[in-house]
Amino acid sequence: MPELDQVQDWIDGYIRAWNSNDADDIRRLFTNDAAYYTEPFSAPWRGQDAVVASWLARQDEPGQTEFTWSPLVITDTLAVVQGQTTYLNPTRIYSNLWIIRLDSTGRCFEFTEWWMEQPSDTRAPG
Fold first, then answer.
1. I need a labelling partner for 71 at 20 to 30 A (CA). Which of 2, 14, 34, 94 fits?
2. DSSP sequence for 62-92
3. What is the structure's pLDDT at 122?
4. In CATH, what number is assigned to the domain containing residue 11?
5. Alpha carbon distance 14, 16 (integer Å)
6. What does the pLDDT read at residue 1?
């Protein structure tokens, strides 16, 4: 664990939860004792209930983001993916690096994200 299909399924679920802000969609992604690091050196949200509560306290509006990604590393213990998040209104683009550790059931027990807003002068003319 994990394999590319399992990572794809997990990220699809993450995007579904991102757009629904449904507690059950979020809870389905994480183990009971999950650690979710919103920044690599910050204190994590610990436990499924904390992940759900913290996610909902910072939620984005459904349909306001687009996310694309590609795998960088997938081993039997972790997945590292590079992504891009585009917020539509107002337009902001973020580069993302996610470290995802999945258990044998495909649920995440540790998630760490790096995100950085891209300067507007590096974006393609629209």
1. 34
2. TTSEEEEEEEEEE-SS-EEEEEEEEEETTEE
3. 58
4. 3.10.450.50
5. 5
6. 62
Total structural domains in the chain? 1
Determine the pLDDT at residue 2.
77
Per DSSP, what are the bridge partners of residue 86? 66, 93
Q: Kindly list the strands in the beta sheet with 30-37, ordered across the sheet, starting from the edge strand earlier in the chain.
A: 45-46, 30-37, 108-117, 91-102, 79-88, 65-74
Distances in Å between the alpha carbon of 110 and those of 14, 45, 61, 93, 113?
14, 10, 25, 25, 10
* Residues spanned by the domain of 78: 4-115
Q: Is residue 123 part of a domain?
A: no
The predicted pLDDT at position 36 comes to 98
Q: What is the mean pLDDT of each run of 10 residues along the chain (126 residues)?
A: 89 96 97 96 96 94 92 94 94 96 95 93 56
> Would residue 124 count as lying in a domain?
no
pLDDT at 125: 52
Residue 21 in any domain: the answer is: yes
